[in-house]
Amino acid sequence: MQDFKRFGLCLLLGSLLAAEAAAAEHAPIQLPSSLSAALRYSVLESGVFAQARDGRLDNRSLFRAALIAGGVHDETTLRTYLVRYGDWRRLLRRECGAIRQTRYLAAAGAAMTIGREGTPDVRRAAKVLAFLHREILTGKYDIRCSGMSEVANTGRYNCVSATILFNSLAAEVGLTAHGGEAPAHVLSILDVSKKEILIETTCSRWFEIAEGSSAFRNWRRPGSDLGVTRRSAVRRSLSPAQLVAIVYYNQGVDLAEQHDYADAVAANYKALQLDPHNSTARGNLLAAVNNWALDLAEQKRFAKAVTLLQHGRQIAPEHQSFTVNQLALYQQWIHSLRRRGDFDRATSVLKRAAAEFPNEPYFHSALIRVFRQSAKPVKAPITSRNL
Fold it and tell me: 108: Cβ–Cβ under 8 A, 6 or more apart, which residues?
């Protein structure tokens, strides 16, 4: 079975299927009915997707959208979390209101000397990060914790949830930040005076650690780095909608690992609607279809398994794993029918396979063998004895 790639703290789970999808741009996936059965949208979700389509999903609405993507689908529960977020916002604004222009930055008990240009913004960013870990991210790092409701309830977090919260709160105090995608990792990128500072939002002592970094001291220099994740490793910037897409994407990983492949396909499809260029979501959607079919074959449900792979070839004709596995499952199915002596069904399946793969010699030769195997000599009946 293939593994699935997840966004975590610099943790990369290998996935042949996702790597294939990342190699090139492909046409958008259109799900046939058999694969979209689990694709449902709550009223709140529909609103989020409409916001994204209209370009209205920004950092000020990011927390709300991430809550909904993470599974909050009723208004009452949503309001409860938004009230809590409002409390965080008011407390953070009071703390940041005391910041004055100065040559020194005090963050997490450290003093960092930086240039005057952009100093208030950097100081507010340090306040936001310190506040985030003191008031909200009070639990442990948890690679599975992308949902905002779980973060609010338990304090656990991963790089996705930490970055979404940092960017949301930064916007509340006048800062501009966006996401950055590195291999299997997400971080925040603070926009300051037309320059960028990388912020590892999962690290509560990030600014303190960065104090001795030449990259931080020279952050105004074009091309400077800040952090464990080097700037060159950031493959692309992420908009608020694309960050929400990763919440869906990580859900897809969890669902696939639980063998809930139908919902895994739906979650990755939603991720692709918000971020059509998310090659890992595309790869994991194809992986879910592939592994769903293999799981069905293990249960001897060959008809549905080969149909799934057939649909997989329709939505991603470049994906060779579907063709290879469909050929193999056809052969397993036919072999199973022959062993049971169900020659009529074996013949029907062979004809179907031969029509679908006319250049595959196995099905034509197997069809002849089935005819021979089913054509057993029949003894003539003997009439009754005359008395």
Answer: 126, 130, 204, 205, 207, 208
